[in-house]
Amino acid sequence: MKNTVYIIVWFISIQMMFVGCSQSETKPLATRDRLINTDWKFVRDSITGAEKQDFDDSQWVLVDLPHDYSIMDLPGEDSPDQIGPFSKTAPGNGNSTGHVPGGTGWYRKEFTVDYSDAGKSVILKFDGVYLESEVWMNGQKVGEHKNGYTPFWYDVTPFLNATGEPNLIAVKVENLGRNSRWYSGSGIYRNVHLVMVPPVHIKEWGVAISTPKVDDKTAIVSVEVDTENNTDKASEIVCTINIKDKLGNISGTVSERINIASRGEKKFTKQIEIQNPLLWSVETPDLYTAEVVLQANGQEADIYTQPFGIRTISFSADKGFLLNGKQTLLKGGCLHHDNGFLGAAAIQRAEERKVELMKANGYNAIRCSHNPPSEAFLNACDELGILVINEFTDMWESYKNPQDYSLHFKEHWKTDLTNMILRDRNHPSIIMWSIGNEVPKESVQDAVRIGKQLAEHVRQLDNTRAVTEAVTSVFTPGGWENSADIFNILDVSGYNYQPQRYADDHEKFPNRVMYGSESFALDAYTYWEAVEKYPHVIGDFVWTSMDYIGEVALAHTKYVPENEKVIFKLPEYSIPASAKIFDMMEGMPSAWPNYVAWSGDFDITGAKKPQMLYRDVLWDNSIIELNVHEPIPEGMAENISGWGWPKEWPIWNWEGHEGEPLQVRVFTKAPKVRLELNGNAVGEKELMEDDHYIAVFDVPYQAGELTAIALEEGKEIARKVLTTVGAPVGIRLTQERNSLSPDRNDLAYVKIEIVDAKGDLVPTDTAQIKISVSGTGELVGSGSGSPADMESVNNNLIKTYKGRAQAIIRPYQEPGTIVIKAEAQGLAMGELKIEVGNSINATHEGQK
User: Fold this and answer.
1) What is the tens place of the pLDDT at every residue in 34-83?
2) Which H or E element spans position 716?
3) Where is the Glycosyl hydrolases family 2 sugar binding domain positioned along the sequence (predicted)?
4) Which fold has domain 623-629+641-652+654-724?
5) In this structure, what is the dihedral angle of CA atoms 770, 775, 778, 784, given to the nearest 10 degrees?
6) Whole-angstrom distance, CA of residue 759 vs CA of residue 610
7) Which of 318, 286, 123 is nearest to 204 (CA)?
């Protein structure tokens, strides 16, 4: 009996030893690319020696990637100078990074190469680590990387232990000093992969796909394959390329016989004709997959699958931007990389959700500001039909912050830019490569010299898209009159906050293609009117489509004495790179406890802000919308920054201000607007061109219903009603999606709302909600849309903002039930049950 038990235990142990990663994150062993995101050990400390195999990490915490240690609570108790992850003493300008420090972190993980993978080369691939990283394998240094946003990989085969024996990955990450002017996050904040390839294989990022000829009946798909032979013998291979449609059916195939020298490489290109192609577009984002199969010496060697889209793009000053031959106006937003209360962690569901929000609200384009995004983000853009400007960096040789990427630009730009292009070149969503944003330059000559290097390198790697750069007069040496030298090296010219130049510059440079690479929400009419009027202005990208941590209070709106009111205006003059404008910002007063920029069309939770209601009308998402300005204190005036918006809300709850006139702004393209209060006419207004689709009324406050009616030829075409809601009685919890997978890549975003007896939202800022989570998931993010409520961030005690808050739940890797409860004094508890792997059922106790 003892011998039998011993054999069973021995057999189980051997089986466990062969497993490289947790079952939930690995793919079948035949798959070359495997996520290794789970069960990393982590410590936030600048210790030494943690790369050694015998280092004691038993006291470290266990984390799953993607992971951002900047958003983790700081040690010790909260105090007037420290709240959760926020600190008044954060290195660098706290206003820039959202008062969140970086520091040093260490990650360690063990994995084992399975015997079925014996003889394969092993690549360790990172999608992004912020900021400077060093990587060891089994105590031996593999390499280091200096760019916090570009992907990179190492062939770790020479450092591996024997097959079946455990290997140790150790990663040191340093985010030190002043290196960013927005929230960056820290750590391994994107995916990590192990790529297993046979000796004769396709190189990583070694498949490039283009569509040189496309029409209604046929498309030519050109597939370039870069292969490698790591053996000591020449190898004869057969490469078969299958093009599969979205249903997995083969639409075309081709084979090629090739000889690769020992320890050699071979690159070749094949073209495949596809009949009746399904074209990728923003309306129908149909995707194909190229399956590239290598057979070496009669045996299957490697399989590489690459999604892509069949589409054409072109840019011209007379026809604008054409997608598949159809003019497409870019309804765009600039978007930073962070994910709200998750910090920079690029969890797949968080990346998808951002894109879904943009798509659902009329956006068709995103400018990735100001760095390459995650691969998960680009995949979502491909699948949902969002056009992308993929941007490389925010600085070149001259710094914006003393410890930023400029320290490493000269040495590393070519490798980093190459990695960005090679990884991303097959995404049909990408229509432009941006080589920089508002880059400080010492001179026009420097601007042209460096810009040409970058632009030429991009075109060498991928000449199927436009090269662009975002330019503003402030960072143009000698002023805007010298911008022509910069724009001459580009295919499409990005204008940051320069709509007044669109017409005059077109007269001077009739072939120049322009777009608003950044714009003010307050001036949305001016920017969008130019896009609709001028073919050479192909789109507008508001700063920003979604709010973000850092650049704190950029979009501030505040009350000042009437004689101190100022009108914001960007300076027309240029600031030399030697002036170090961001050094000067170090002396600015702290905006504590504000931690977000507050400039988004959507707040940090993804809720629509009042400024988006105006854009809804501009973009024909809605016929009529309205906002009510909060009462302005007597003797005071409203100061609005260039990126700000008036303090107005789609709310008709102003208790205590009965009889006071409140400003009501109605947004509509209808020629006439009528406003009613409790069924009585307040007034009518005919809209003229100078009104910019905004009708303004003063309405003495009285509880009830405020109704705006859009009229055309005397007939009602739409109406919008704001209703005074009742007292709060309960809490409502709702989940955004009706399914949740037992997968750490998935998330449940739970909306928390204070409601009255009718179930209507009560727009209160005072409710204190206590969140509890039990079952097969955990609370990983929480807070409200308030730009100044640090105390609610990633806390189980959340204060509502305009009646709302948010909880983010990450499921464990097992099916089951997650129960979320929300309690507050004097309110009926809200409860939500999420079936992981099944449907969702919600109950709202105390609700009728």
Assistant:
1) 999 999 999 999 999 999 999 999 999 999 999 999 999 999 999 999 99
2) strand 715-723
3) 102-198
4) Immunoglobulin-like (2.60.40)
5) -30
6) 22
7) 123
37/838 Cα distance (integer angstroms)? 24
Kindly give the interhelix angle for 348-360 and 375-384, rounded to the nearest 10 degrees: 40
Integer-rounded Cα radius of gyration of the chain: 28
Which residues, given as ranges, of the chain have pLDDT below 70?
1-30, 92, 578-579, 584-586, 838-848
* CA-closest candidate to residue 733, choices 646, 809, 793, 640: 809
Burial class (CB in 10 A: 0-12, 13-18, 19+), 737: middle
Residues 6+ apart with CB under 8 A from 808: 340, 341, 342, 747, 748, 749, 750, 779, 780, 781, 782
Q: Where are the domains of the chain?
A: 20-193, 200-308, 322-542, 623-629+641-652+654-724, 730-844
Predicted local confidence at residue 120, as pLDDT: 95
Give the residue among 382, 380, 387, 381 at the shortest CA–CA distance from 365: 387
Cis-peptide into 240, omega within 30 deg? no
Q: What is the pLDDT of residue 576?
A: 74
The DSSP secondary-structure symbol of 688 reads P
What pLDDT is recorded for position 838? 55
Residue 225: count of CB within 10 angstroms of its CB: 24
Residue type at position 534? Y
pLDDT of residue 31: 84
Domain at 322-542, CATH homologous superfamily: Glycosidases (3.20.20.80)
Contact 93, 160 (CB under 8 A): no
> Amino acid identity of 41?
K
Tokens at 577, concatenated: 């790179």
Is 0.90 surpassed by the pTM of this model? yes
